[in-house]
Amino acid sequence: MRTGGPAMAAPEESLRRRKVGNAGAEPGSPPGPGPGCDPTGYSARLRAGTFWLTRIVLLRALAFIYFVAFLVAFHQNKQLIGDRGLLPCRTYLKNVQQYFRGPVSWDAVSYAPTVLWLLDWSHMDSNLDALALLGLGVSSFVLVTGCANIVLMATLWVLYMSLVNVGQIWYSFGWESQLLETGFLGIFLCPLWTLSRLPTGTPPSQIVLWGFRWLIFRIMLGAGLIKIRGDRCWRDLTCMDFHYETQPVPNPVAYFLHQSPWWVHRFETLSNHFLELVVPFFIFLGRRMCILHGALQILFQVVLIISGNLSFLNWLTMVPSMACFDDATLGFLFPSGPGGLKDRVLKLQEEAARGARPPLRYGCMVRRAVHMALGILVAWLSVPVVINLLSPTQVMNTSFNPLRIVNTYGAFGSITKERTEVILQGTASPNASTPDAVWEDYEFKCKPGDPGRRPCLISPYHHRLDWLMWFAAFQTYEHNEWIIHLAGRLLANDATAVSLLALNPFEDRAPPRWVRGEHYRYKFSRPGGQHAAAGKWWVRKRIGPYFPPLSLRDLEDYFRSREWPYPELE
């Protein structure tokens, strides 16, 4: 038997190779990866501190919100601000012109910045549809591809600003300004022309990322401070006893959350204060605390989405929170493998670690100068916002400039303790005052009406009329002239106005002779109680009339004095 043969030489040679391979290794250091290991397959290898993947996630999330906002606009703008809308934007723009005493002037444009100044007003419905459809197309492209540049993001911002500034009361919600501020920052997160998910020549700007963090800080802190300074129930921890029932448009989950024990509602209120008054400061306490802030705020927004129909507000609030996460945190969202986004980001990080930097080009210097200017602009426009935050007379959801670049925010500074609803009713009776007149209810898309109808679940979509009906219920019809305009449209069975409703009791019939508004108090039915057993989600009790019975003839002068198109019988 030969001891020096090949069978014995192979292990010895293999051992010798391993020793040579580890000659420079520190004692106790782990062995290097074997030839079958793919280092790009490990998300842990993505280093902290870069934001290439963050930009993709953030821009796609922003594009999704834009898509929803333009979808709502396409479905509802004609009925609300179109040629025959409840508050026509053509009339609004004419009033702006008259206020500044002349044709289109710089004062008028700066008061209401919108591209509609440049278009033909004789077909306003077509103009509104064109803006919404263009916005839908651009936002769909960014959402699907993950590619965006300054031109596309600026187009989305200009289009939506053009709608908000003529939307009047229908676009008076705080999330409209929040979307415009978020969208404005999104413009500067992109390269000028390049359409690539990973434009290696344009790394995400730290100034822009801090702009997003500054935005979410103000949103949450403003919401927390307005509560503490506002309704007493936020201080005695009882607001959540009422919120689920009295919020603008409850969903089915809110019905069950409202029935929770008192101690659950106290915990919810305390948690709200912690998340809005304490957690925002985590942003400034280093990477780990910033990541924790982003995770907590996103979780908070998910809970709010589950518990109510707050339009796309909570979805939108998640967007700036994304800026708290770097590539190492978000790597799990992207597939591993050679040539993938994660692999390409890893190579960029390795090049940066070796000190390989691309030559400084003219375009890079211009971009840095623009980002510096943006930081100075945001800081300057933040001065009145910060003063407002520190003021005991804080106001929420206010813009200090017509472009809505930096704004104040807040939500539910006061909580209504009981729910009231305006129920519109029509009758075919020739005499509205006779006891035998049969009054039939109109049903809206989402707001409570029929006590037996299940609350809707529509977030992030937004029925603007339903929200305004909630506000109108604790005001008077004199404060909301549009509701009389709506009554007039219903008296004519106007197809445009009726499309905003879920049920028209006079469909395929002669229009009603009279329409009235009735005021009701609504409460959730008690699970296991008599009303719930009968299939009713709500219990309602009449308070009294909201506005008296009206006929089409009664409204003729009212319409003409406001330059509203007089309804024509369908």
Description:
The structure is a single chain. Helices cover 50% and strands 7% of the residues. With 570 residues, the protein is of the alpha+beta class. The protein has a four-stranded antiparallel sheet with strand order 2-1-5-6. A two-stranded antiparallel ribbon has the order 3-4. It is globular, with a radius of gyration of 30 Å. It starts with 5 loop residues before the first helix and ends in a 9-residue tail after the last helix. Residues 1-44 have low confidence and may be disordered.
Give the key terms.
single chain, 570 residues, alpha+beta, 2 domains, four-stranded antiparallel β-sheet, 22 helices, 6 strands, disordered N terminus, membrane, LMF1/2_N, endoplasmic reticulum, transmembrane
Beta-strand residue fraction: 5-15%
Enumerate the spans where pLDDT stays under 50 for 5 or more consecutive residues.
1-44
Head-to-tail CA distance between termini: 109 Å
**Sheet having the most strands:** 4 strands, antiparallel
Helix content: 40-55%
Structural class estimated from helices and strands = alpha+beta
Count of DSSP-assigned helices: 22
Order of helices and strands: HHHHHHHHHHHHHHHHHEEEHHHEEHEH
Radius of gyration over C-alpha positions, nearest whole angstrom: 30 Å
InterPro entries: LMF, LMF1/2_C, LMF1/2_N
Transmembrane segments: 52-74, 131-159, 179-195, 207-226, 298-316, 369-390
Pfam families: LMF1 (PF06762), LMF1_C (PF25179)
Main location: endoplasmic reticulum
